[in-house]
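Re-running the complex after MR caught last week's input typo. The corrected sequence lines follow. Everything else is unchanged.
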Amino acid sequence: MISIKNLHAKVEDKPILKGLNLDIKPGEVHAIMGPNGAGKSTLGNVLAGRDGYEVTEGSVVMNGKEMLELEAEERAREGLFLAFQYPVEIPGVSNLEFLKASVDAVREHQGKPALDSVNFLKTAREKIKSVNLDQSFLKRGVNEGFSGGEKKRNELMQMMMLEPQLCILDETDSGLDIDALQVVANGVNAMRDPNRSFIVVTHYQRLLDYIVPDYVHVLADGKIVKSGGKELALELEEKGYGWLENGEA
Amino acid sequence: MNDVVNPAAAELPNQEIHQQIRKEYAAGFISEIESDTLPPGLNEDVVRFISAKKGEPEWMTEWRLKAYRAWLEMVEPDWAHLRYEKPDFQALSYYSAPKSMADGPKSLDEVDPKLLETYDKLGIPLHEQLALAGVAVDAVFDSVSVATTFRDKLAEAGVIFMPISEAVHKHPELVKKYLGTVVPQRDNFYAALNSAVFSDGSFVYIPKGTRCPMELSTYFRINEAKTGQFERTLIICDEGAYVSYLEGCTAPMRDENQLHAAVVELIALDDAEIKYSTVQNWYPGDEEGKGGIYNFVTKRAVAHTNAKISWTQVETGSAVTWKYPSCILKGDNAVGEFYSVALTNNYQQADTGTKMIHLGKNTRSTIISKGISAGKSQNAYRGLVRMNPNAEGARNYTQCDSLLIGDQCGAHTFPYIESRHPSAVVEHEATTSTVSDDQLFLCRQRGIDTEKAVSMIVNGFCKEVFKELPMEFAVEAGKLLEISLEGSVG
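Corrected-run output:
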């Protein structure tokens, strides 16, 4: 599915990622954990192609295509989805209008026929319901005046509409209460599929109680310093990150 | 399906437009039509020539001359936040009419096919499409109105919709009674000039208690080089009547600055309502700021007791815009509204806004202004709200929002408030925002390219104004913004 090799990236001339390697097969869920400042959010932004994140070395191949050569919107259309830690508001642009533009762009790129308005609306209504948001949210501006939890559920809703191949969840648990966390986790679990992979970036083990990963990696100082199964998350919860940073790094 | 979002909004994202390639001004072409053009220069003889050319009665000639004499003593205003080379008024020609119009066509069949072709290029539906759209067009090509449609249907309702040059002959009592009553000849420099040399324009009269059976529409177009265009529009809505009037403008591409100084007067008698909508995209000049139209317009309305005036404008064109559609709320309970979107890109400059003059008791006004600046443009809102000593219980609400795209443009707000009655309430809100990188990245991460994203965000910003436009105009307005912003984000 996606193969990240020797990825180096810097932000404002400061190296953040320093040789990151990661292989993800279809259907797998990989958790990326690590202390603050390790480069976790940078990873998501670099993969998604955000301006200001400069890749200096390495490659990211998804489904045989080099992602680093593509514009951000092209990566999205290839099926790479980033759920933001802090989703931004777009006042005046309704959720429905935004979703339609997004789904149309992605489907067109993938050679699928455009959804007609009736089907589109029907799907959007189902999805918004499944993330426990009122139908009225479809007409509201994108994230406009939404609470933190509502924004995260809205992200999940977009993910469901786009049916991406690779979902990157960037600290999705931050700012969520336990109920909202459960809704989001249920949504993600419902989307787990043999052809879809996930990168779940999180600081805390808590989210992984709900979204159970196949693998857990520890990111420290721009590199993956330890990998293991889901039990590694529990170990980290108990011992903290210090032993890894000081020991093996 | 009733709760689908505004269809205009839902359609817009589908419209293909775009690449980063800057598209040439889509309406930029010059028709090859012979013109009957007066040599440059302005004096009393020219005023008399124009009047004679139109076979005007003596009173009209005198009216023009009075304006001309007033104009001679006036100076061009320079208080606006605009920088431009002042036009040389003696270098302009003040009359131009397509030759084939000399005898005046009786129907569309008699219209020069070249003219019709021009309208087709602009996407103006002048034939059967009109019937479908339910729009009657009084098309002004340069200075002479070429075709007026649907006159019969309107006549049935007693509505008068014709070129003002014709109204001077056919309805002199109405023209005499109202012309210059809202915008007097000596109101301002450009209004005086217009009064002296106005070429043509529309005249509308809606009789008492009549709801105009269709939306009335005029398309303007400047065609001749070095020809100023001076439209004169007069709309009278008698007691209890209603009309919605649409005005749309495009102009061909050209290197020299062209002057456009129109005057629009609206009169809403007791209990009447006039809705006046404009989409303006005169040629704005090129990316270096060369060429483009100078647009100095005086638009004003008077609302009598319980009457309502609503101005809606989408201004995307012109190199320089100087325009303040205003309402004099003369009668008690009169209502004035001003909804505006003004977009400037490259080197465009706009100084636009409104005046709400509250004279009557319990008069109310609303001002919603959305300014969008991109490129190196300057965009100013200038508005006056005046509560006169008799305006007991009058209220105004003003909301003035600016959106900046890039860091080389400017947005300015000049609100003037004069309240002379203690019970009057004036509220003013203003915001300035930018299209942020975070917003653009969210859009792109969802597969939406930058141009489309900017267009969506800008359209969202303007939504409150667009919803005031008639549907077909709302779609056109959205498209216009998209085209006008091409290349504004790298």
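None of the earlier attempt is carried over here. Residues 435 and 470 of chain B are 27 Å apart (CA to CA). Chain B has twelve helices and 23 strands.
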